[in-house]
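Request: Could I get any protein with tokenized structure?
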Amino acid sequence: MKELQAIWRHIDAARLDELVVEAVHQYSPSLAEEPATEVFEEALNSAGVPSFRQPVGEEEESERDRANLIIQIGPEPAALLWVGHVDTIALRHDEEHKIRREGDLLYGLGAADMKAGCAAMVEAVTAVAASKVSLKRGLKVALVVGEEELGDGSEAVADALDVPLTVIGEPTGLIPCIDHYGYLEYRLSAAGRRAHAALPEAGDNAIHAMLAWITDILRRTARLSAHDQTAVNLREIRGGTGLFVLADQCEALLDVHLPPGVEGGVVAGIIEEAKRELSAAAAAKVSFDELFWAPGYATHPDDARLVPLRRAFETAGVLWQPGTFRSHSDGPTLYAAGSLPVVCGPGRLEVAHTRFEHVSMTEVLEAARLYASMIHAACVE
């Protein structure tokens, strides 16, 4: 505890507050993350903590200079990896990027998802460096790009991954999520036959066919044994060309979040069954493509790799009550690479990606203390 107390004494609440505000102030959607990366890089430089850029993507594929920000402290091999993403979703055309404070709460795009988690990681590393506490095992930190879109930042980390335990700072209210949902994306397409809108019997409305297909998909999904844990989201639907015309084309994007243990093929089977039934009853032609599949995973609570985290929670006075992360994150990519990812960070998932996204600054400070306790348990003791 002597070393941990020394680290905790160097956590600076005002410095952390300033870092969170400045990071959230920077608009950094996927593929344009540099403003946020620079904020964290400058904070590390000011603290004398070395970092380096890990290029992401092939140079010939893009003119953008995109890179993960990597920190390595302590000896090899590293015992713990922290991962945070610096990108956010893009603003809609009618939205304005602005932040505001209301008491303990900081509002702004990326506040919870997940610049606050990144800032807590940087503050914990800064405190370790300032404390001069020696690490017996190493720590790596990867502040990655592209999580909200391509996932290419975490793929670059996974390619060089050799760390048994990973903590991802997505918003969980500091609940350690050792299980993780799977995530699917589908594109549904319908092709009909154009006709004047006053004579629908002369054509086949692709939008009507799409709506019937989706309605049947939702009905069938509700019959799954895990239907109360499965989230099906019709993200987007578009079609049609103008007034007084039956739509001859329609396309929809479908998201599905599946609990651990449910395979993506179950959903594909449902979509295919609904397609066959629709094709037998309607003239419109429908098809679908799987765009993305990230399998979920479940971790046994007694997995030995969790021991340092349980000890860190106990030391920091935070309840160790493992949960399940119900969204998509970089976790499945890192799990497939051989590490055990635990999702744990400040903020609430339900406010992420909304106009009222916010984070409690008290919880961010608590996260920094908890992350420091993780360093102590995994890398010092």
